[in-house]
Design a protein that fits this description.
single chain, mainly alpha, 3 helical TM bundles of succinate and fumarate reductases, elongated
């Protein structure tokens, strides 16, 4: 007959012993990977943006509208906006989780940051699309 091994009472276990077997929350690694992916994506996107802006310094509105109206610049600008604001939301969430005390305040701040980042990304995308489609005249 095999006898099942019972765990010692929790008061006799060390903090490490109590934590073992609980596993991770399973979200920290995904958050970390998403932040690294957006950071890597932002490097070429930001370099392209800086080079493109240097190339159009002093251009008038019609020239900019023609430039944004081409498919490649419009697509890359939208990707830049998405990556920038997603990366910003991820980074600000980490800061909030580290420095805002109180569960309700922390959740509220994260929700506000996410909403602001989504709103700014949508506003930027609408601006790019309205320029690209000639709606902004």
């Amino acid at each position: 007959m095999s006898r099942a091994r019972t765990a010692p009472p929790s008061r006799l276990r060390s903090p490490l012993g109590r934590a073992r077997g609980l596993g991770s929350a399973k979200e920290g690694v995904e958050h970390w990977i998403a932040q690294r992916i957006t950071a890597v994506a932002l490097v070429p996107l930001a370099l392209w943006f800086v080079a493109a802006m240097i190339g159009v310094v002093g251009a008038d509105y019609d020239t900019m509208q023609d430039w944004v109206g081409r498919p490649l610049p419009a697509i890359v600008l939208v990707l830049l906006l998405i990556a920038t604001f997603y990366h910003a939301a991820l980074g600000l969430q980490v800061v909030i989780e580290d420095y805002v005390h109180g569960e309700l305040a922390r959740i509220g701040c994260v929700v506000v940051v996410r909403l602001v980042c989504v709103a700014l990304a949508i506003a930027g995308i609408v601006a790019v699309l309205s320029l690209a489609l000639g709606v902004a005249d």
